[in-house]
TrEMBL record:
Its main location: membrane. The chain crosses the membrane at residues 28-49. One of its GO terms (cellular component) is cytoplasm. The keyword Glycosyltransferase applies. It comes from the Eukaryota. Its EC number is 2.4.1.-. This is Glycosyltransferase family 92 protein. Keywords: Glycosyltransferase, Membrane, Transferase, Transmembrane, Transmembrane helix. Belongs to the glycosyltransferase 92 family. InterPro entries: Glyco_transf_92. It is a single-pass membrane protein. It comes from Anguilla anguilla (European freshwater eel).
């Protein structure tokens, strides 16, 4: 029970990032509250995507994961780490946590291959699965190339190394190629929430996003076409994530629910990789899923909103937004946005769900983050685990995380919910954007339908 308990971040509403650590564990242990907390916590961690174990393999044109021979570790990517005293390289990895092995990075240098001892850090957000996210940090020896590096076990063979290109060669603290990038984690299980995904992409663009990064395990044929469109217009960058070819992943955040060796399709290594990958390519990173939108309430765009936050808290801070659940079971009554042109498009319609669950005084922090990636070292789903600056919780009336999902607090009746139509402010432009995007897509399901009913 202690483990389950510790896996949640239990905080009061006006929490600060550091408060979570001060929770009096002993007091609560043994009380029935533990069970209640667990159930609440547990339900909060389930996402809208169904939990079915997936054996389907995604194709990988690029090797996403590189095994380290002599160990169970996999490497994701190598990044130049500009924030250490001496120039270093950080590998983002997935490590078998009980394995006690010393690693070395290997560099190509003037005098040939040179090893450099690696400092292994296992991230705390492993949810007690045997595999967890880890990183390996190595100083670059003088006279060695920073362009490529490999990893070996200490004493292991250096005859058959895979050298990875080192990303983030150029450090930037201003003039970023884009201001706002969104990191979506893993797409899996024949993902087919087409309408919701298209609406989210159009909303993000209206608000100011220039790039969305998505790690894809697999999705439906319709979604392939949606992704094709957004890749062609330069919005989405798709990173193949055939994690199930390498590791038996869990479809849950907890092993007893879905056995496996790694938490939730590898969400944590993906989020960390996304932070490093975009460190010098974007001013801010939004870390959330396509069923979520962070909506400014007193400004129209993210530009206006983030510049207001910067003035107040500086651009070194990261920002936390509490979760606001809009149950998809509750439809808006007038049917105003039940649009005939979207009939037959699979997926949730953001505009039809305007009832939100009120946030209780004391609750679990299952919200999401806007981060300055250059100030981060380790991130989890709802919290930053290691950073050089602080996280600010953004007040509730200033901006709100809209999260469309099935009911979370099942005790609430419709009359307990709060009507919230803030998203409707954007409806006319969003609908125009969605209709335009759909008109440029050739969805296979529509092709079939029109063949049957010409
Ligand atoms: C990786 O995939 C991209 C697109 O899928 C392709 O353009 C690139 O050449 C591939 N790289 C390698 C090393 O295979
Ligand atoms: C940086 O490198 C120098 C020379 O190799 C070494 O003496 C020093 O300890 C390193 N500094 C840190 C903080 O690791
Ligand atoms: C070298 O690595 C490749 C791919 O990882 C593997 O197929 C091959 O057996 C290895 N060769 C040796 C001699 O270890
Ligand atoms: C954004 O909202 C803040 C108040 O929340 C306000 O002070 C600021 O003027 C707004 N910016 C714009 C451009 O409307
Ligand atoms: C939504 O509109 C369609 C017609 O486009 C209609 O058939 C359907 O019953 C409506 N659904 C609801 C829940 O109002």
């Amino acid at each position: 029970m202690v483990r389950l308990f510790a896996a949640c971040n239990y905080c009061s509403r006006n929490h600060h990032a550091t408060k979570a650590k001060k929770f009096p564990w002993k007091m609560a242990l043994g009380s029935t509250a533990v069970l209640i907390i667990f159930l609440f916590c547990y339900s909060s961690q389930l996402f809208v995507w169904p939990n079915v174990w997936l054996a389907k393999k995604a194709d990988s044109r690029n090797a996403t994961l590189t095994p380290v021979s002599g160990s169970k570790m996999f490497l994701l990517n190598a990044y130049l780490e500009h924030r250490t005293w001496n120039a270093s390289i950080r590998f983002i990895t997935i490590a078998w946590r009980s394995e006690k092995i010393d690693y070395s990075c290997v560099f190509t240098c003037n005098e040939g291959l040179v090893p450099s001892p690696a400092k292994l850090t296992v991230h705390p957000s492993h949810f007690w699965f045997p595999y967890g996210t880890a990183d390996l940090l190595c100083e670059i020896p003088p006279g060695c190339s920073k362009l490529r590096a490999a990893v070996t076990t200490v004493g292991g063979s250096t005859s058959n190394l895979t050298f990875l290109p080192v990303r983030n060669q150029k450090r930037r603290e201003s003039n970023f190629p884009v201001d706002f990038t969104i990191c979506h984690s893993t797409m899996f299980n024949k993902y087919n929430n087409v309408l919701q995904f298209v609406q989210a992409m159009e909303m993000y663009q209206l608000l100011g996003a220039k790039r969305v990064v998505l790690y894809k395990t697999d999705c439906s044929p319709d979604m392939e076409e949606v992704l094709r469109y957004y890749r062609d217009i330069g919005l989405i960058e798709i990173i193949d994530w055939p994690i199930d070819k390498y590791i038996k992943v869990s479809s849950s955040w907890i092993a007893s629910e879905s056995p496996g060796d790694l938490h939730y399709y590898g969400q944590i290594p993906v989020l960390n990789d996304c932070v490093y990958r975009n460190m010098y390519r974007t001013k801010y990173l939004f870390m959330h899923d396509p069923d979520e939108i962070i909506l400014p309430l007193q400004n129209v765009t993210w530009y206006e909103f983030l510049s207001t936050l910067e003035q107040k808290y500086s651009s070194d801070a990261s920002f936390y937004f509490e979760n606001n659940v809009f149950p998809i079971e509750e439809l808006e009554e007038s049917g105003k946005y039940n649009l005939s042109q979207w009939a037959g498009i699979p997926g949730v319609n953001f505009l039809r769900h305007v009832m939100r669950e009120p946030i209780p005084k004391r609750h679990f922090t299952t919200g999401k983050l806007i981060v300055n990636p250059r100030r981060l070292f380790e991130i989890s789903v709802h919290t930053i685990k290691k950073q050089s600056h602080r996280t600010v919780e953004v007040p509730y009336d200033f901006a709100r995380l809209f999260h469309m999902r099935r009911r979370k607090n099942t005790k609430l009746k419709r009359e307990d919910l709060v009507m919230d139509k803030a998203l409707w402010r954007y409806a006319p432009e969003m609908i125009r954007g969605v209709d335009h995007a759909l008109s440029k897509m050739d969805l296979p399901s529509r092709r079939l339908n029109s063949a049957v009913h010409p």
